[in-house]
Amino acid sequence: MTDSPHDAADAIAAALFRLRGRRGAGPHGHQHPHGRGPHGPHGRRGMGPWAADRSGAPAVIRMLEALATASAPLGVSDLAAAVGVDQPRASRLVQQGVDRGWVRREADPDDARRTRIALTDDGARTFRGMRGERREALARALAAFTDDESAELARLLTKLADNWGA
After folding, report:
1. How far, rounded to the nearest angstrom, does the alpha carbon of residue 34 sit from its chain's CA centroid?
2. DSSP state of 32
3. Distance between CA atoms of 140 and 153, rounded to whole angstroms?
């Protein structure tokens, strides 16, 4: 269990991140093409103002989160796996991030033929803003929960994320 409601919210957010990028069957048992969900190709309802350009915001957010939480820059294949998209889509996400100044490409010191992707300072600031909006939304949603219910939700979502696809 977690020690405080804040810890529960962090655990819930982490579990949701781990689950979000994973492709699964749609509501009628069939796969959405390219991981697209019931709200169309550009994301979910209730996204913040930073998503107003409708350019695949959920995947961009997952990319920024994956880079922000990684211990080192990621290769495109590793980034694709972390975000839950195929490699061509990950390459397009990286280009969007480069165009916005949120990520940069750098040479892999172990293999000059490979490129690694790193978060820029602007990308880190942008992600912190997105994370703050998400935490506020999560805090509002959890306000109706008791501390024990929040902790139990965190435990169950973490268990689900740990066992997804196992």
Report:
1. 16
2. P
3. 15
| Amino acid at site 104 | R
Binned at pLDDT 50, 70 and 90, residue 62 comes out as: confident
How many residues are given for the chain? Answer: 166
CA distance 104 to 123: 9
- Cβ-count burial 51-71 (b if 16+ within 10 Å, e if not): beeeebbbbbbbbbbbbeebe
Residues 88-103 pLDDT 10s: 999 999 999 999 999 9
What is the number of other CB atoms lying within 10 angstroms of the CB of residue 155?
16
pTM of the model: 0.59
How many other CB atoms are there within 10 angstroms of residue 156's CB atom?
12
DSSP state of 33: G
Phi/psi region, residue 96 (left: phi>0; alpha: psi -120 to 50; beta: rest), is: alpha
- Which pair of structure tokens corresponds to residue 18? 């781990």
Helices 87-100, 57-69: inter-axial angle, 10-degree rounding: 80
What's the rounded Cα separation, in Å, for the pair 12 and 29? 26
Contact 15, 158 (CB under 8 A): yes
